[in-house]
Amino acid sequence: MRNLVSLLAGIVVATTTLATTAHAQTIAITGATVCTAVPGKPCQTGLTVVMENGRIAAVSARPSIPAGATIIDAFGKYVTPGLVDGFSRLGLIEIEAVESVNDASPGKAHFAAAFDVEPSINPGDSSIAISRIAGVTSAVVAPETGSTFFGGYGAIINTSGTNNSVMRHKAFEYIELGETGAERAGGSRGASYVSLSNALDETQRYMLNSSVYKRGGFREALTNRLDTEALIPVVSGQIPLLVHAESVQDIRNVIRLKSNFQRLRIIVVGAAEGWQIAAEIKAANIPVIIHTYVNIPEAFEKLSATSTNAARLKHAGVMVAIGSGPFDFDALQSRLLPQVAGNLLSVLAPNQLSESEALEMITSSPAAIFGFASEAGSLEKGKRADVVVWDGPPLALSSAPVDVFIGGKAVAMVSRQTLLRDRYKNISTQTVPPQYHK
After folding, report:
1. Contact assessment for residue 36 and residue 380, using Cβ atoms and an 8 Å cutoff
2. CATH number at residue 346
3. The pTM is what?
4. Is the pLDDT of residue 152 over 60?
5. What domain range is 353 assigned to?
6. Sheet with 320-322, side-by-side order of all strands
7. Alpha carbon of 73 to those of 33, 53, 137, 389: distances in Å?
8. What distance in Å separates the CA atoms of residue 248 and residue 81, rounded to the nearest whole number?
9. Per-residue confidence (pLDDT) for residue 12, from 0 to 100
10. Most buried of the four, 10, 305, 393, 434, by CB within 10 Å?
């Protein structure tokens, strides 16, 4: 197994090296149909996208193109912002079944809320390169829970494969409620809700008088000091609390939690039954990250799952984004985001959701929900030049990226999958064993 992991790591290093050799240039993309992913703005022909110094310099019909700029004629193609995965575990899990390369969970550590994925994120993870050439340029990376319902701190990354790919560490705190949270808390939803409320309450008490806590004044506290201190920015509203909840009952518990701790900034991921209480979610100002393939009653907490969930939530005024998780294997499949978003269009009536709205769910909406919309998620002047050129409509199953730019740098369209494809596709003509490079 160690040999296998070493072999995979070698291939990933080669891929990462290829991905970072390009430099930011002044580039103008002309002739394409441009989908800016700015809410309310449909795709439009006749626009030119200009990238300069790693930023978007212009998106207009007649921009001033700097002298010496590289011109990309994209006639017949489409241009979008880089895709944003609203929930993933990219960079944390190289091989799900191999413990030594699975760093998503605090496991049996004596702390949980204080766990931080940032030191574990591997920018050379093979799933990152695979996602990158599929047009995904940013991702929300969430931990898994261990022995408690707390998962810990998640991060926001770009998929450049470089050592500085973590754009924001400690970007949110992740917890599990519902069936998993109940199991982690001892077997009951009531236990998980009381335990979470108690942890937040103890954090408030700590904030009011930390010196007493440190002197042992709160000996009855159930939450350890590391976790209590980790929850301070959550309770104070500095970072959001990302809660996995699927059923109506669990979502209502989340809403009740927010009413009790009013500075909480809550984001719900999952929400399979959210459409039933869309008005309540809207009133609580809680955004939702969904996985559109959850449309069958695969668990008791998802008995009312439906393909129309996203559209109903959005029509109720809820901010909705799409994530590739939180299910373990799916959370590594960011490359499928266009297919997942496009699937919505195939199962809904034309007036329920537009193509632009579906695209926003994998670009500008997750960026806005997690607070980095000023940097990424849409094609607007001043934002980071994360740009994708597609050979067809971006949400069509037959379409694929032909060029991907991250921070204005063109990335090599290479992954472990393409390397293996190229190595073996002409095996009958090779004169050396296929495992060796010529």
Report:
1. yes
2. 3.20.20.140
3. 0.90
4. yes
5. 83-376
6. 83-88, 136-141, 150-158, 166-176, 241-245, 266-270, 288-290, 320-322
7. 12, 20, 22, 10
8. 34
9. 41
10. 305
